[in-house]
Structures are given as C-alpha cells and as structure tokens.
Write a structure and sequence with these properties.
By secondary structure, this protein is α/β, with parallel strands linked by helices. The chain is built from 27 helices and 36 strands. The strands form nine sheets. The chain has a seven-stranded parallel beta sheet with strand order 14-15-13-16-17-12-18, with helices on both faces. It has a six-stranded parallel beta sheet with strand order 19-31-30-22-29-28, with helices on both faces. The chain has a five-stranded antiparallel beta sheet with strand order 2-1-4-3-5. Bound molecules: adenosine-5'-diphosphate and zinc ion (2 copies).
Length: about 850
C-alpha cells in the first residue's frame, strides 16, 4: 500500500519506469469508463478488481473499481492521478467484471449503475461516507493495537457520533487516510455509518446481576438469604440466579450476569419479583449487545434421506447435466424439491465449488434459510434486501475469503463475488420478482444467473411447480433438460379445488360481505379441528378507493393518475405508486356530504371482517404494510408455524413456497381481479398464482381443500388449475404467443418516455417512435401509446414497445440503434428534460 501522497506529485518521471493507467468504474451513471494515471509507487499495488480512490469532478473523492490496467494515456483529456489504493486483494473477481459488463450491455445501462446496485454501500466509499464506533467495540476491554493515526480517529469518535471521510482527512491532515479507516473496520473498532437505511442498531438483551457489594463483601450473601426468607418468591429468584451463575465458585461470573428472560423462565418465578429485587437494589439490570448471527444454538442436522422419487429426480438431473448446461425441475407443490436441491448442493460442495441458491422473495427465505442452516451451518451465507449494509458487506467479504461456500439470497445475490461456482439453483424460476423494475439495472436475475453460469463454466438448475412459458419452451425445444416430479412427497395428496360462484351466492343471499357462507363454514370447521387457514386477496390496504355516495367524488393522488387506497389502521388515504398520503377526510370535500364509502376490498378489510365474523379466530395479516421491519416476516411466519395464529390473510406473499404442516384450507377471495388483467401474461400469472397458493394446503398427510370465489366459474383457467393441467395451459399459451408475436418468439423492449408536460411527453414519444421505425422497421415498433396509469410522480408517461424476432435478429445492432435514437432525441432542445427508460425483457 502507498505511503503518504499529495496532489502535487510526481517528480519528473524517470524514463525507464513504465507509466500505467487504470480504467475505473465509478459508482455513477456515466456512459464510459474514466482513465486515471497510476503513480509509480503504486504500480505494484493497483490491481484489476480492487478499489482505488480518485477525484472526480470538482472536489468529489470516490472509491471505484479498477476494470483494466494499461499503458495508453487517454487521447482527449489529461488523466488525473489515482490518489490511493484501498484493497490489497481484488474485491471484484474477473468473472464478476465480465458479468457486470454483460448486464450493462444487455439491459442497456451503464457499468456505474451496475456497480451501484451490486456493491454494498459499505464498499462504495466516498468523501461523504461516514463512520462511527462499532457498537460492540469496548475501548476498556478490547485490547486492540492501533496505529497512532487510528488512535486519533477512535478518540474523535468517542466524542462525536459520526465523522465523514473528509473530516477524518482533515483530522489526520493527510490525503491518504483511507487505509486507516479500512484497518479500523477490519479491527472491528468502527463501522460505516448508514445514512440511507437506519443506522446500525445493535441487538440488545436485558440482563441482570447481583449488585456488587453482595458478592464483593464477606458475609453479605448469607445476610441476604436471611432477609429474603420471609419472601419465598424473591428467595426463589435468588436461588435460581445462583444456580445458573455460581458466584460462590467464582465471583467474576457475576459480572456477565444472566438474561432476564432466562431468570424468569421457570413458570412459578415471576418477572415482578425480579423487578422488586431490582428496586431493592439486590439485583441490577443492564443491557448487553449480542451477535446477529446466532448460529451456535441451531441444531446441526443431516440432510433428510431422499425418497425414491427424489433420488430418481436427482439422478435424472445429474444425467442431463452431462449434456446440458441448464435443467428445469418441474415438480408439483410439495413434491420435495428443496430436499433435492440440498442433496445437489452437498455434492457440489464436496467437489469443492461454491453454490448460489436464488430465491425470489424474503418471505420465502425465512423457512428455507432455517432448513439450510441446519444442514450447512457456518458455510451458509444469507443475502437479502432487508439486511443492513454492514451485513451485506460481511457476506461479500465472506465469499471472497471462503467463509461462505453456499449463499442463499434474493435477486441481488447475482452481484456477489463468486469465483468458483459449481452450481446455481433458481428456485421458483417463474417468479416476476426476479426482474428488477426500477432503478437500472433492470435485470432479470434468472437470465443473469444463466449467463453467470456460462461465464464460470457451471450448471444451472431451475425449479418450479408452475414454470414460466419461456422456460418450458426451452425444454420442449431441447435446449434445456426437463425433469418432472408429479407426486407430492410421502402420503400427501394435491388439494381438492372447488369454485364458489359469488354471483349465485349473492342471489341466494349467501354472502356475508366478501365471504360466501360456504367459505365461512369451511373456515369455522378448520378452526374447530384446530387446523389452519390461509386466505389470499391480491390487494393490500382496506379498500382500493373510496367514493362519495352523493356526488361520486373519488380521491385521487396529487402526483399520479390513480385513486388513493384507504388504510384503516392509520385512517389514511395512500397512493401505492408514489407513497403520497393524507388523512381520510371526514366528509366529502366536493359536496360536504358525510357519506364516504369504501369501495372494493383489500387484505386489511378481510382481516377486519373476519375478526368480527369469527371472533375466536386469531387472524394475522402478511402484506407490504405488516412486513416493513426486518424481522416482521419471520415473526408472522413463526406465529403461524407455532399455531399462535389460526388464519393468515395476505397478498401474493402468502402464495409462495411456504411450508406449513397444519394448513388444510386455502381461500381465494376474489379470483377475477387476477385473471382480468390487460397483459399477455395474465393467464400464465393467474395459473401460477392459483396453483401456488393452493399448494400451501394439505402438504403433510392431512387432505387439503382450496375454495376459489369467482364471478365467472366457467373461465377455462379454473379447469386447468383444478386438474393441475400445466401441459394444457402451456399448449394454449405458446400457441397464442406464436400467433400474436410475444416472448419466447420475440424479444421485447419497453421504452417509457416521461415528462412533466403531457404534450411534451407525447410529442417526444411520437418523434422517437418515428425514428425507431426508420431504423428498425415498421413491424418492430408498436406505439406510442398512453399507458393505463398515465401519470406517476408528476411525470406523464408514453410507451413504445419494440418487438424483435428471436430468430435472425442482431440484438446488439438493434440496441445500438435504439440507444442512438434516444441520444438524438435528447439533443433536441425541446426535449432537453425528457426522461427515457428502456426496459429489456419487461415483465
Ligand atoms: P416443494 O419445494 O417441492 O414444494 P418441499 O421441499 O417443501 O416441497 O417438501 C414438502 C414437504 O415434504 C416438506 O415439509 C418437507 O420437509 C417434506 N419432505 C420432503 N422430502 C423429504 C424427505 N426426503 N424426507 C422427509 N420429509 C421430506
Ligand atoms: Zn360528495
Ligand atoms: Zn401517487
């Protein structure tokens, strides 16, 4: 690593020394890489894939990734110097850099945007980054040896909550101070302060211990016993404490104390007696910070022995991998795919490689992570969006160092620094949430995983009970291998699916608000049998909109062309597109009437009404509103698993991958909103959703029932769902897609033009579409058209769809044309402030 630097070097270059330049990826949406000159003394320490510090623009100092090192000075500008080197080994691997480049090219964004999305911000330092003391660092106890500069930083942090990097630089009077920050992070004395999400909040437990003089002074403890004899409850507490913390053997044990909850665990010991002892000054209470990864108390388990079907599936997969790079495992819900994955992961690890296990959503990860942790213990890294940045940086480093050999994670795990992958698993491969919608890179993790596998010469296994039409097509055409598991594991049967005609029920007066009497009776029966129920409704909130009974006024978002949803728990109207919210008005702002009515219904209303209709039921809701905090998913799932809750109401979150033994009924409250969606994928999606949510019922032994409420029971999709007839869905869909020109036969790119003026947005879209027709041909360009929701966040939207036939299209050339057209449009002064988003393979 470099010694002290300043901005005024170098001295005259000696002629025999090579001058090196580094192309760097800055974490900014810049169209190209910037080249910096490497000072001679850093020639040996700058590496591809490692971070360096550079100055960009006026005063901004940033860390960036070295993408290339060469001897060519940039032709059109004077290269500035690299200021400092941060890493002594690369933090981004070779295959990763190639993958990032592919993502930028394919999804039409900049490398900076890819880096920005991919790197945890703790690895993206800038002069505005801030540090704070590590919450677990204790200057009195921890005997860490610090350099004098490090001591200075620590001292400053003991008196300031946080310091920016610039402040650290000023404090040390040094330009190259980053190495000290890095070293302090490694010594676990400081952490990067999180500004965006909440800052690092340590996990704390309440503990108690004996007040010091009872242990320090001779005879005090005996006297205490005598005093407490008339108070048997308090005496019990004391005895319990001494049993668990034998201070008579070693008085130092008292210092660490005992968790308060541990002390009152015994049913006849009450928390109030503990509090009395605290008040009396016998015990004292204190907080202790504990680790977030409490792996130690998990029982290690061997993987389950595979059943005959599972063994067969596994053998088929391994057999197909000999010829094909990609295999799709099409196994019905509950067929035991997870155990097959675990077995394959074990083999991959034994062969010495890394494994990436992709999951679509974190609701799913809670259960599967527990299962995987039991088998893989400390080798398993977990990566998901609710993790704090420090946790993510830890997983990143853990993969580089070899600590984590298996990683289970959501879509962003494809950015992690794997270098030796031997298997990628994409579970629930049909899931739309593998696609990132906003911001760039708008990547699909499933597709990216396939490219990653290719770059690392490894295999990919995709799995689903309801494969995407595109994936199944790849199997049918022989590009991928296909393995099928058509039976549930063990004795479990697929559930019985029944339709309830709600129009008919309404006529017969057999509807109680949104519940048919058939559904209500069925729920009651399960409650009596102490079985559990899952109810699905695909809208959150109480009602999707409200309306005045007198004048039909409907409140709309100020910034978007949508009605505001009503949320009862906080009496708010809320926009689900931009987050705008206001208080629910008392009376109609238009006519003054007090007859505001909620229209339609969401999960909150389902929960609310069910509590009224079945007061004995313990109902819990799982949707975006109830799962905002990091552990809320886990809590809801744990409560349901332990039987604390009887009925789980939720949005699509409850449909995915969850595995509960005791669920014997699944209810779908309103199937029609799912089916009647204006999108070529509507039927595929509806099928997937119904089969997946049905798949939560009757997973172990107990027979399961699914009740679907609909106004249109003759809709053909239901027959396919009831018969579990994926083949017929596929045949129908693929035929339509061929006929109307949709994926997999074409590649689509959706271009969204946005502007604050409706007219400008429209004009720009017209000009752009025309240019695209000239460049790509009339057949290839659809639109422009105004989407159904035509304004979001005060920007008016226009869309153009580009369809490129899969066969005989030079994709790269077409994208270049598109980029050129967008570039040209922006050059026109009238369209200066126009925003254009290209979404490749939109979902
Ligand atoms: P899928 O992912 O295909 O929906 P799971 O892997 O969740 O199915 O398996 C369904 C249920 O069967 C789970 O509760 C699982 O624990 C159980 N199971 C699967 N395979 C085995 C096995 N080999 N031995 C014991 N139980 C198993
Ligand atoms: Zn009104
Ligand atoms: Zn809005």
């Amino acid at each position: 690593m470099s010694e002290l630097l300043n901005f005024n070097y170098p001295p005259e270059p000696a002629t025999d020394r090579v001058t090196l330049f580094a192309d760097v990826i800055l974490p900014l949406p810049l169209p190209k890489l910037y080249t910096y000159r490497i000072p001679f003394e850093m020639n040996d320490s700058v590496m591809v894939g490692a971070r360096v510090i550079v100055q960009f623009g006026g005063k901004r100092v940033l860390s960036c990734i070295v993408a290339d090192i060469h001897e060519n000075a940039p032709a059109d500008y004077q290269a500035k110097y690299v200021l400092d080197v941060l890493d002594d080994t690369p933090i981004v691997t070779g295959p990763q850099l190639k993958l990032f480049k592919w993502i930028a090219d394919y999804y039409m964004c900049t490398l900076g945007e890819v880096i920005n999305a991919g790197l945890p911000s703790a690895l993206k330092l800038s002069s505005e980054s801030r540090i704070q003391l590590h919450p677990q660092y204790n200057p009195e106890e921890d005997e860490i040896i610090f350099a004098p500069q490090e001591e200075k930083i620590i001292f400053a942090l003991q008196h300031n909550q946080a310091l920016t990097f610039t402040e650290v630089g000023n404090l040390l009077q040094l330009k190259s101070y980053h190495k000290f920050i890095k070293s302090l992070i490694q010594k676990e004395a400081i952490i990067i302060y999180e500004q965006v999400s909440d800052k690092f909040s340590p996990k704390v437990v309440k503990k108690v211990r004996l007040t010091e003089h009872f242990v320090q002074e001779e005879g005090m403890l005996e006297e205490l016993f005598n005093q407490l004899t008339p108070q048997p409850k308090q005496l019990d507490i004391l005895l319990n404490y001494l049993q668990k913390v034998p201070v008579h053997q070693d008085i130092n044990l008292n210092y660490k104390g005992l968790e308060k909850s541990e002390l009152s665990k015994n049913p006849h010991l009450s928390a109030s007696s503990i509090n009395t002892l605290i008040k009396k000054g016998v015990l004292e209470q204190f907080d202790q910070i504990v680790s977030r990864f409490p792996i130690d108390n998990l029982q290690q388990q061997l993987p389950m022995a595979l059943s005959e079907h599972q063994l067969q599936a596994k053998d088929e997969i391994l057999g197909l991998f000999k010829e094909k790079d990609t295999v799709l495992l099409h196994g019905v819900t509950g067929s035991g795919k997870t155990e097959v994955y675990i077995d394959l992961i074990k083999h991959a690890l034994e062969a010495g490689g890394q494994v990436l296990y992709l999951l679509p959503e974190i609701a799913l990860t809670a259960q599967i992570v527990t299962r995987l942790l039991k088998v893989f213990g400390e080798k398993l890294g977990v990566y998901h969006s609710k993790f704090s940045d420090n946790e993510r940086a830890e997983v990143w480093q853990g993969i580089l160092s070899g600590r984590f050999q298996v990683v289970v994670g959501v879509r962003s795990s494809i950015f992690l620094p794997f270098h030796n992958l031997s298997l990628i698993i994409v579970d629930e491969e049909h899931e739309a949430s593998y696609k990132q919608y906003d911001p760039a890179p708008r990547y699909n993790a499933r597709e990216t995983a396939l490219v990653m596998a290719n770059l690392q010469g490894t295999k990919t296994l995709l799995g689903s009970a309801t494969p995407s039409i595109e994936s199944y097509y790849n199997c049918k055409t022989g590009r991928w291998g296909l393995v099928t598991m058509s039976k549930r594991f063990g004795q479990a049967q697929l559930p019985d699916i029944e339709l309830i005609d709600i129009r008919d029920a309404q006529r017969r007066k057999a509807m109680n608000s949104h519940f048919s009497s058939q559904l209500l009776t069925a729920i009651e029966e399960r409650l009596q049998r102490e079985e559990q129920v899952i109810l699905f409704q695909n809208r959150r909130g109480y009602a999707p909109f409200i309306s005045c009974d007198e004048c039909s006024w409907i409140p709309k978002c100020k910034f978007c062309a949508v009605s505001l949803s009503y949320h009862k728990y906080n009496n708010e109207l809320r926009c689900h597109y931009c987050g705008y919210h206001e208080r629910m008005p008392h009376d109609c702002p238009a006519c003054g009437a007090t007859t505001l009515k909620s229209m339609g219904f969401g999960t909150e209303k389902v929960e609310d009404e069910l509590k009224l209709l079945l007061p004995k039921a313990e109902v819990q809701r799982m949707d975006l509103d109830t799962t905002k905090t990091k552990n809320s998913y886990q809590q809801i799932i744990a409560d349901f698993e332990n039987g604390k809750t009887n009925v789980l109401v939720g949005t699509q979150m409850v449909t995915k991958g969850l595995d509960f033994e005791n669920v014997s009924l699944v209810g779908i409250l309103n199937a029609d909103t799912v089916i009647n969606f204006p999108d070529y994928r509507a039927h595929e999606r509806a099928y997937q959703l119904f089969v997946q949510v049905s798949g939560r019922a009757g997973r172990k032994g107990k027979p399961g029932t699914v009740l679907i409420q609909t106004r249109d029971p003759l809709q053909p999709i239901f027959r396919k769902v009831r018969n579990n007839d994926y083949e017929s869905l596929y045949e129908h869909e693929i035929e339509e897609r061929l006929r109307f020109g949709y994926p997999p036969f074409v590649r689509m790119i959706r271009i969204t033009v946005k502007h604050a003026e409706e007219e400008t947005s429209e004009n720009a879209a017209i000009v752009l579409a025309k240019d695209l027709v000239d460049r790509l041909g009339k057949q290839q360009v659809l639109g422009p058209e105004v989407p159904y929701i035509f304004k979001i966040r005060n920007l008016f939207l226009n869309e153009i769809h580009i369809k490129l036939p899969r066969a005989n299209t030079n994709l790269k050339a077409a994208k270049d044309q598109l980029a050129q057209a967008i570039f040209n449009l922006r050059l026109l002064p009238v369209f200066k402030n126009i925003r254009i988003v290209a979404d490749v393979d939109p979902m």
